Amino acid sequence: MNALYFLIVAAPIAIVGDFLGWDPAVVFVLSAVALIPLAGLLGKATEELATHTGPRLGGLLNATLGNAAELIITIFAIRAGLLELVKASITGSILGNILLVLGLAMFLGGLRNGVQSFEREHAGTNATMMILAVVALIVPSVFSHTIDLVDHHGVEALSIGVAIAMLVLYALSLAYAFVPGASPAADHGHATGQAHWSVRKSLLYLVFATVLVAWLSEVLVGAAEPVVEAWGISEFFLGIVIIPLVGNVAEHLVAVQAAWKNQMELGMAVAVGSSLQIALFVAPLLVFISLLFGNPLTLVFNEFELVTLAGASLVAGIVALDGKSNWLEGAQLLAVYVITALAFYFLP
Question: Which of 99, 141, 241, 285 could cross-link with 337 by S-S, CB 3.0 to 4.6 Å?
């Protein structure tokens, strides 16, 4: 992860390039490269701050700010009116974590350590929550067309209602995970590790990373449309594959490194937990944020997104059934992700 921090030199170059009117494709690549270490720094600062707040509050901080970089990117996309890009990014983040990250973690961890074990009950709970989250995304998508025929504003109202229900469910899941007595895991506490940074240093890095991520997100989103035209790819593919990778590379490395060190429990928690946060926290939060910009975001996804989300959530549930993983299961998940990415690439 430390090696990635060298990529931060791309940040000032991207900002200068945007100011001087360089080729949008060059500016897009530079800002995307710079966002990778900044997303990692944002996560590191959050983790360090969490070690000073105690296990339960620390867990809450990580659960709330774990996908801060991607949240910031999508907020700027909403402001620019790129709502389909935002929804594609939500889908891509969920698919990327469940198929790509979990698959890579299982594959590399299995190659090095053989069959790996993880807590079946906790993984099963997360998998069930993931299926419920996908169902919550499917319902407004399926009902929207019929509702829109009668009342166009009804679709927006439905999305707001579903968003509220998802946020409540997310809050309840946090209470179950972090409140003593609510779950066996909570009773054993949540180790947050040993602090290497002071509170002041953690806050300074947190503010620094947040400001730069916001600035570069605006640059990235501003160059998105010219890049789509120049590269001959769809806005949909950009949101499904590229933007989620940029915002989550650092977190992806954490899951893979954990599995490599034979800590598959942590790898599962990071991969599936990040997907849950996107589905139950980031997506509904964006619905309310979009109202502030006058560009209402509805939780209406197309059939291609719904099919892949349903399939990925079922895969997560099946993998969690036996509490064990191996390299072949990882290869299977990676194959599904590659097939899905190829399909989205050729989708007009």
Answer: 99
